[in-house]
Amino acid sequence: MAKHLTDKDIEAIVEYLDEWDLSKKVTWEKLCLSLDDDLGISHTRQTLQSHDRIKGAFDDLKLHLRGKKKQGGKVLPSSLAAAAKEIETLNRKNARLERENKNLLEQFLVWQYNAHIHGMKQDQLNRPLPEK
After folding, report:
1. Which of 42, 47, 60, 83 is in Cβ range 3.0-4.6 Å of 36 for a Cys bridge?
2. Measured in whole angstroms, how far is the alpha carbon of residue 80 from the centre of its chain?
3. Neighbouring residues of 52: CB distance < 8 A, sequence distance ≥ 6
4. Which DSSP state fits 77?
5. Does the pLDDT of residue 113 top 90, yes or no?
6. What SS3 state is found at 43?
7. Which stretch of DSSP H or E encloses residue 8?
8. Helix H or strand E segment including 96
9. CB–CB of 30/24 below 8 Å?
10. Distance between CA 64 and CA 83 in Å, rounded?
């Protein structure tokens, strides 16, 4: 039986998707093979797809690749190409992080509302976690 994905694994996978080579098509099968080869993370599509962060990053990449336009066949010098790739990677990572942050803020509002409804006080919510 395969081990569960840790938070560290999930973070590594979404960062791997952020840095995906845009000249290559992405599929769940290719992603699974690439993760196994490059990161040593061996899981099925179903396991990867069951994690919202991974699925979101994958869907964002697919949408980005569909909307990606060729640069008219112009060949950029390697330094400009490297800079353009880095900017593209950072833009995609930034968009993913903004989406994840939005989702976390929405979750916080739900928790805030539920805490208020159940009469929880702010000092109860701010209590530190117990020591192990």
Report:
1. 42
2. 26
3. 103
4. P
5. yes
6. coil
7. helix 7-18
8. helix 78-117
9. yes
10. 18
| One-letter amino acid of 112 | Q
C-alpha 108, offset from chain centre: 19
> Of 51, 61, 62, nearest to 91 (Cα)?
61
**Domain boundaries of the chain, sorted by first residue:** 7-119
Retrieve residue 28's tokens.
Answer: 């769940």
- Provide the whole-model pTM: 0.64
Residue 100 corresponds to which tokens in the numbers above? 């994840």
pLDDT tens, residue by residue, 27-72 = 999 999 999 999 988 889 999 999 999 999 999 899 888 875 444 5
The 3-state DSSP composition of the chain as helix, strand, coil percent (nearest 5) reads: 65, 0, 35
Both tokens assigned to 31:
């992603």
- Of 30, 95, 34, 22, which Cα lies nearest the Cα of 65? 22
Residue labelled with tokens 């994958």: 58
Nearest residue to 51 via CA among 16, 12, 96, 5: 5
